[in-house]
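Reading a protein record of the kind used here takes only a little practice. To see the layout at work, look at the sequence and tokens printed below.
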Amino acid sequence: MAYESTAFRVKGIEPSGDPAWALAGRDVHREFWREVVRLVLAENEFERARGRDRFGRKLVPISRYTRAHRRSEMGTADPNAPPLTPADDSSRTVAYFDGRAHGDHAEFFWRQGWGRILGYHRAGNARLPVRDVIGIAPQPLRRVTVKMRAWWETRKARLRPPAPVVVEPPEPRPKPKPRPEPKPKPRPRVAAAAPTPRQLRVEVLKSGERPRGRRAPGKILVYDAPRSGPPTIGESTTAGIGPRPGPGPTKPKPTPKAPTRPPVAPAKPAPAAPPAPAPPPQVALPIKPPPHWNKIDPVARENISSAARIVHGEGAKVRILTTRGAVIGRYPDDNDRWTAVYDPDTDTVFLNATAERWLEAREPKLDGVFTAVEDSAHHPAWHELGHRQHWFAIDRDKARFRAMAESGSWSAGDIWAAARVSGYAATSPREFVAETWAGMKQGKRYDGEIMALYQRFGGPPP
């Protein structure tokens, strides 16, 4: 059976028109909505004590039979207490009501699955009058808005304005002193060579070459190689110029020795790096991953994978939906609300990956006195498998299976017995069978009254 969410939000009461609100920052915004949560919780308790619904109207009074047999799991029941709160402020309608502050709104819900019960009171049926308390009435919301305006004025006065940024002009830089221009150095004067009375001409003759022409005055002949014997015509040693001596013996250059280096010690091997830690084990899907599977939250993926393995291990088909398209024609508009659905026509369990139920592993659990079977993260899979086993146990009788989905097909005593299994089990015989079967598969044991009721509605063995 599809489940419609009973959570609601309060938003739009923040002072967004005040320029200081935008400058206050995220922490102050979250502080504002935490105060809204505190005030709405108090208003909810006050409105339930007055016996008013979410529109501010009086709730339908309880019947004489309910007044005579009234009781509560949370304490002593008061016959004269308002509807839905038999133990006054200790009742689950008040005790399990909680809220959570976000950056731009506040969200409110009922823990321990009690919102499901209030959802059926909101819908009503032939034997159950409509009592809608899911939400906040206009008058309490106005009181919360007025109180939050006063709170904001007080809080705004304590906001620290940002310190003004003082930009000091830079100090004037001192002008650089003019550098003196370097004086050109005086060039040394070279005395001009005294003119010679007669310029000498030098002619170089190669070895074995004879001088050409006549010997002119002032002409000196020079040989580029040594000659043997006396000089010939034209050779002269005047002014220190004569035959050029040949190359003498050359001494061999010493070979430079290579510098010796000290011996280098062998490098020590680097210590081996520790092995990388193994990645945390992830639960593998027993089927092909659906589209957009990697975009799902890791916590939700782990819970959905475990649920899919449970369904697959019991021999049923499983299909995971990651978009908001229609599943079966019966639930086209509630894809983001229900968690799991069993379709007997195709023998398939559909798991809605966009449901918030798969993220409950992150939420803190209440340390209350009431602990339901449905607190388990894998409970939706076992619950839908309970519907599947029930469907086969009654020989696929579609008329009987549909009749047990109506809440008016059992007595008030049966409802009180079913409520000891879980809050959701008290909604109809079919949900009672599925919740009981799921509890037994998860290790729960029930008394004789519950088991007798379970067998009366055709409950399958676990």
